[in-house]
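Quick one, tokens below. Sequence please?
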């Protein structure tokens, strides 16, 4: 019985022999430095009063840091298209969930804060 050899392409198609891309130490240090700068920026902007821009600025810094972590430390940048689609689909689903949550919150009926303020009873007004 002859020994059959499997072509090299077939091994790669089955996921065997797949070499993982390694990130250089210089790239790791640059990403780490960017994350440290992002953390310092987060703390610095949290101490400032930006008015209505507080939340958008904090979220944009957080999204930038999360993107760096996902792309480099989770190796999505060098992954196959299916892994990238799963990550993109996960973020799309998260956006849908946030959208539904905010839609529910913003469309709720407003109720009086303290019902006792509207009472004519002086004892209830003191509480």
């Amino acid at each position: 019985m002859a020994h059959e050899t499997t072509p090299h392409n077939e091994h790669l198609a089955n996921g065997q022999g797949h070499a993982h891309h390694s990130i250089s130490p210089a790239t790791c240090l640059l990403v780490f430095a960017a994350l440290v700068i992002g953390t310092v920026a987060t703390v610095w902007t949290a101490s400032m009063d930006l008015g209505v821009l507080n939340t958008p600025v904090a979220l944009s810094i957080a999204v930038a840091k999360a993107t760096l972590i996902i792309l480099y430390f989770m190796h999505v940048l060098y992954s196959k298209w299916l892994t990238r689609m799963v990550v993109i689909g996960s973020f799309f689903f998260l956006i849908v969930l946030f959208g539904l949550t905010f839609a529910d919150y913003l469309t709720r009926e407003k109720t009086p804060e303290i019902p006792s303020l509207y009472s004519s009873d002086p004892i209830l007004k003191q509480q």
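Residues 76-107 form one domain. The chain is about 60% helix and 0% strand.
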